[in-house]
Amino acid sequence: MTIRKKTRNTSLAKRSWQKFIQNRMAILGLIGLVLIIAACLAAPLLTNYDPTLIDPSIRGLSPSREHLLGTDRLGRDIFARILYGGRWSIMIGVIAAMGANLLGAALGCIAGYYGGKVDSVLVSIQEMLSIFPGTLINMLCIGFMGKSVRNLLLIFTFTGWPGVMRIVRGRILSLKQEPYVESCRANGIGGMSIMFHHLLPNTLGPIIVNSTMNVAGYILSEAALSYLGLGVPDNVPTWGNIINAAKRLDIVQTLPMLWLAPAAAICLFVLSINFFGDGLRDALDPSSK
Amino acid sequence: MQENDHILRVQDLKTDFKVGRRTVHAVNGVTFDVRRGKTLCIVGESGCGKSVTAHSIMQLLPPNGTIAGGTISYYTRDGACEILSNYKRSGPRMRAIRGKEISMIFQDPMSTLNPVYTVGSQIMEMLKKHEKVSKAEGKARIIRLLGELGIPNPEIRYDQYPHEFSGGMKQRIMIAIAMICNPTLLIADEPTTALDVTIQAQILDLIRKMQESYGTSVILITHNMGIVVEIADDVAVMYMGRIVEFGSVQQIFSHPVHPYTRALMRSVPVLGMNKDQELAVIEGTTPDASTVFTGCEFAERCECARPECFHRFPKDTEIEAGHRVRCLLYEEGGEENG
Q: Which of A55, A178, B272, B333 is deepest in the core (most CB within 10 A)?
């Protein structure tokens, strides 16, 4: 009985969790994340307005009781647009981060484990992708492929994998020297199984941390591209698209809520995610106390 | 000799490593047999090629190592002969043999288990890889084996992670992984070197016990003569990639003939020996593995070396049934004067 009790307490997940909750900033980040995501998901409960409904009679209103953050130049409620836009922005960030990290992890695994020619080819591609400025590549690709959420996700995935690929490859290079890999091979376990079943889980910590940070990065990239008019189509409300409307100087001056509110949403979300990611990294890194 | 007595026959095995542009002959014409149900100890100092021999048998050499010559024949339970040295190193046939027919335990138990999985699931993976068993049946079998290996509370230990085990316990888990599919040959590459002395004895006892209850043959690689005398049936003494003396444990220990074997014996402390007496040392150091020899490799450190030793390669000479030595002193016409 005593042994069983002890085991429960020392499980790796539990220790990481304890380390995580001792980190105040990380908890703050987690709370921020949960609040923002919950608000976005509960948008229909928090506002009665349709984010895409154009109503010329209420154009450019200042914040009031009916319209918490006012309305934009087409008479759409800004508060509703930010809540519904958050759904799109966060979804784009999360899916793009997952895609890029899955692809990067798989390629990093293959490059690190097999080495040799496969490795050189993958590393060269990775380097070529990394030397181009990210925004430029994204803009070029959008230009070729056209504006749509699906295209944006594809582009983020296929240009975003180098970072995590480098991390995973480096980890695999050192992990494959571990005696347990030799032991696996001595027991007749094949290369695929060693790579993805035995080695990859050992790199999960850095991958998770990198993914959370990437979510923030992709939300920012999406906002930047949308502000330039090269992101998602105009009819999709994302935080970046909402700011896009505030390109003209007179609007910046007369309708401050139109850009202040989505900018604040982006800032808060990205900040929360970064705090959360930092906390995760410290909690999952076995060498940090 | 009948083939049936043997489980593994290694003939003239040569293993080369490419280091930069040079080729190093790590194993240079090694010949030995492993008898069914018996233990062969391969003894030698660091770098003499004993581990490379084991890795060659398992085809687990690093990418720059190749089997350059010789044959490794493995005789299965039903007497079929598989030439392991002809199989592709990570091909399906070799993979089917590894773990199922021949399995291996390694020197450092602290890092031979994957830290992210419970030990139970790691043993289960092995079992499922080679045999069709249901989960419950497999788990029962694993827990029974863990119990046999002297692991207390095997049901609880099954669900624990490697970091919750001590070194000796981890080595028991490694033995469990190696034994779960009931292999016919177990290769133990210095299984006790990383453990402290009391645990060493326990692990050796376990290997012997497993061997008795499952009829497994064992190749045990060690540099510790004390272990050899305790566990071996046959002994192969290796020096610079060659077997210099091979024989049964009685032959080797009561009548060692090769000067290297004798020197090794003298350098081992014996319980009850005079405390003030200095242990004998073997003069000099092991030559670099890439040295090119024109004669006996041991000649320059050998206290019985004669001028011809430096110019002529010795051949294997059988001095009694099953006891062969590779030394010019014992070759046809030569006489013993050691």
A: A178
| Domain-located, residue A7 | no
pLDDT tens, residue by residue, B8-63:
999 999 999 998 888 888 898 899 999 998 999 999 888 888 889 999 999 888 88
Residue A3 has pLDDT above 60, yes or no: no
Contacts of B108 in chain A (CB under 8 A): 179
What CATH number should be reported for the domain holding residue A175? 1.10.3720.10
Given this model, what pLDDT does residue B338 score?
40
Distance from CA of A178 to the nearest CA of B (A): 7
Interchain CB distance below 8 Å, A183 and B156:
no
Q: Looking at beta carbons, which pairs linking B320-325 to residues 24 or more positions away fall under 8 Å?
A: B320/B247, B320/B251, B322/B234, B322/B246, B322/B247, B322/B248, B322/B251, B323/B245, B323/B246, B323/B247, B323/B248, B323/B251, B323/B252, B323/B255, B323/B257, B324/B245, B324/B246, B324/B247, B325/B244, B325/B245, B325/B246, B325/B257, B325/B258
A4 touches chain B (CB under 8 A): yes
pLDDT digits (tens, 9 = 90+) for A74-129: 778 888 888 998 999 999 999 999 999 999 999 999 999 998 899 999 999 999 98
Indicate yes or no: CB of A179 within 8 angstroms of CB of B108.
yes
| A window 133-192, beta carbon within 8 A of B | 178-180, 182-191
Q: Report yes or no: B161 at the A interface, CB cutoff 8 Å.
A: yes
Which residues on chain B are in Cβ contact (under 8 Å) with A183?
104, 106, 112-113, 174, 177
Judged by CB atoms closer than 8 Å, whether chains meet at A183 and B113 is answered as yes
Whole-model pTM: value is 0.78
* Predicted interface score ipTM higher than 0.90: no
Instruction: Judge whether A226 lies within some domain.
Output: yes
Domain that holds residue A132: 22-284
Give chain A's domain count: 1
Does residue A10 form part of some domain?
no
Short-list B226, B148, B162, B216, CA closest to B187: B216
In a domain, A17, yes or no: no
The model's pLDDT over B207-239, given as tens digits with 9 standing for 90+, comes to: 998 898 888 999 999 988 888 888 899 999 999
